[in-house]
Design a protein that fits this description.
Elements: E1 20-21, E2 24-25, E3 30-37, E4 42-47, E5 69-75, H1 88-96, H2 102-116, E6 124-128, E7 134-136, H3 137-146, E8 152-154, E9 159-162, H4 164-170, E10 177-178, E11 181-183, E12 190-193, H5 199-217
Antiparallel strand pairs: 1-2, 3-4, 3-5, 6-12, 7-9, 8-9, 10-11, 11-12
Helix pairs in contact: 1-2
The structure holds flavin-adenine dinucleotide.
The site of flavin-adenine dinucleotide (FAD) has 22 residues, from strand 1, strand 5 and strand 6.
C-alpha cells in the first residue's frame, strides 16, 4: 500500500481502475468491495476475485460501469512487511533515507512523485493518461534490438510490459505544447491543461501521441483514463 502513496482520489475510486504505482496495485491488498445497486435498491458484496481486477482495470470499468456506488473497500494488510522496490529509482531513494522500511518507502514514493508529477491544484493535468503497453516477447525482443536502451519489464514467459512514458518521450512528445494543451516536461505520460483547454483538445492531443508512437515503434498505447 505504501507504494500507492500520493495517488490523488477517494477510497471508493481506488478499485475502479485498480490504481497502481511502483510495481504494486490496489488489488494486492483489496479482499472485498461493497456496493449499493441503485436499480435494485440493494447492497452487494464482491470478493476480490469477482472484481476481475486487471492492469488499471476491473469489473467497475466494464459490466458494472455506472451501475453501482462503491460504499466500502475491505483491505487486508500483511503483518510482516513486504517490500516492493524493484524500480531502481525507488530503491536508491529508500537507501538515501536510511534503508528499507515501510515508512521510508512511503516517504521515497512521495518525494519522487512530488518531484516528477505536477500538482493538479497548481497545473491542471490528467495524471498518467496512457497505460504501459503489454506486448509479446517477440515484439519486445525486436524492439530491444533496434532500441537497446528501451526499458522493459517481464510479465510472463510470453509477455513483456513496455514503458509508455519512454515510448512517448522517444517519439519527441515530452514537454511539447500545442496551444492550451501539452505533454508535461518531466513526465511524458501526463497531459497538461495550461488553462481553458477543452476535453476535445486534450483528446486530439492524445490521438496525435498515439499515432506518433504507433508510427515510430509499431506499438499501440491505450488510454488509462475512463472515457464517457
Ligand atoms: C497527478 C495525478 C497522478 C495520478 N497518479 C496515478 C497513479 O500513479 N496510478 C493510478 O492508478 N492512477 C493515478 N491517477 C489517477 C487517479 O488518481 C485515480 O484514477 C483515482 O482513483 C481517481 O480518484 P477520484 O476519487 O478522483 O475518482 P474520479 O476520477 O472522480 O472517478 C474515477 C472513476 O471511478 C468512478 N467512481 C469514483 N468513485 C466511485 C464510487 N464510490 N463508486 C463507483 N464508482 C466510482 C467514477 O465514476 C469514474 O468513472 C493520477 C491522477 C492525477 C491527477
Amino acid at each position: 500500500m505504501e507504494n500507492l502513496s500520493w495517488i490523488p482520489g477517494s477510497v471508493g475510486a481506488a478499485p475502479v481502475q485498480n490504481i497502481g504505482a511502483y510495481g504494486t496495485e490496489a488489488c494486492c491488498v483489496i479482499t472485498a468491495v461493497e456496493c449499493y445497486v441503485p436499480a435494485e435498491h440493494r447492497m452487494m458484496r464482491l470478493s476480490a476475485e469477482a472484481c476481475c481486477f486487471g492492469y488499471r482495470d476491473s469489473i467497475f470499468k466494464r459490466e458494472l460501469q455506472g451501475r453501482v456506488v462503491i460504499t466500502a473497500v475491505e483491505f487486508a494488510l500483511s503483518l510482516k512487511p513486504l517490500f516492493h522496490v524493484r524500480y531502481g529509482e525507488l530503491s536508491r531513494e529508500v537507501e538515501q533515507l536510511g534503508g528499507m522500511s515501510l515508512e521510508h518507502i512511503r516517504q521515497a514514493v512521495i518525494a519522487i512523485r512530488k518531484h516528477k508529477l505536477p500538482d493538479p491544484k497548481q497545473l491542471g493535468n490528467t495524471g498518467s493518461f496512457f497505460k504501459n503497453p503489454v506486448v509479446s516477447r517477440a515484439v519486445a525482443d525486436a524492439l530491444t534490438e533496434r532500441f537497446p536502451d528501451m526499458p522493459r519489464y517481464e510479465v510472463s514467459n510470453e509477455e513483456v510490459k513496455l514503458a509508455a512514458g519512454w515510448l512517448i518521450d522517444q517519439s519527441g512528445w515530452r514537454g511539447r505544447r500545442e496551444g492550451k494543451v501539452g505533454v508535461h516536461e518531466s513526465q511524458a505520460l501526463v497531459l497538461v491543461n495550461y488553462g481553458g483547454a477543452t476535453g476535445a483538445e486534450v483528446m486530439a492531443l492524445a490521438h496525435r501521441i498515439q499515432e506518433a508512437v504507433a508510427t515510430q515503434f509499431g506499438v499501440q498505447i491505450e488510454m488509462e483514463v475512463n472515457l464517457r
